[in-house]
Design a protein that fits this description.
By secondary structure, this protein is mainly alpha-helical. It folds into two domains: 3-156, no CATH class; 164-245, no CATH class. The protein has twelve helices and four strands. The protein has helices at residues 21-49, 52-56, 61-76, 78-85, 91-96, 110-118, 120-125, 130-138, 145-150, 187-202, 206-220, 229-245; strands spanning 3-7, 13-17, 98-102, 152-156. It has a two-stranded antiparallel ribbon. A two-stranded antiparallel ribbon has the order 3-4.
Length: 247
Amino acid sequence: MSELSINTTQNVKINFIAASVGERLGSYFIDLLIKISYVIVILLVFFYGLHFDKLFDKLDSWSVMSILLFFYLPIMLYSITLESIFEGQTIGKKLVKIKVVKIDGYQAGFGDYLIRWFFRLIDFTLLYGLVGLIAVVTSKKAQRLGDMAAGTAVITLKNKIDISHTILEEIGDAYVPTYPLVIKLSDNDMRIIKETFQKADAKNDHEMIYKLVAKIESVTGIKNQSGNNNDFLRVILKDYNFYTQNM
């Protein structure tokens, strides 16, 4: 497995492990099995059960094609729809525990998933998927052509990491939060905040910490009530965990 280093906009390097070819193939075949199951259900219900094939005899070719296209849409839009809903994961990716991410540290968006979806025609269709497979095996970041075009990569979520390397914070049952507006931030925001704070704190980089606090205040509307920037950031991290764990 190759290591993927993502440099965030705060110049924090986050290391991930790129999903292996086996993991990506496993995800692909799980999703393929789901699509095949869908086709079987459609055939059993609408064609063998409701006899849509007899209805087709009474329709012109354009009407028949429209109906078939309607049934095919869920298969065609499967990956882009689920990746958009589940933030970079299809059912196959969830089961295999891999995910699509941006290589610049941001959460991938619909536009990125759309680009990857368009390139499926090349990656998966051309030469029976050999193009995509070769791209993943030979590229430094294990990217298929769609990933390269979208600026994304597929990472494994199976990394064994310590809690200090995640956005999670240990909080007790009696913890009382201070800043409810912290929920305006996302998991990705909190990861960047924590990584930046840990790096700056280790180097006693007070200027970076000050800028980080100012950015949080401007984005969320929160005002530092502690008077100490380091304490403020620690509370922000704990408050976010409190609210997201109890929502």
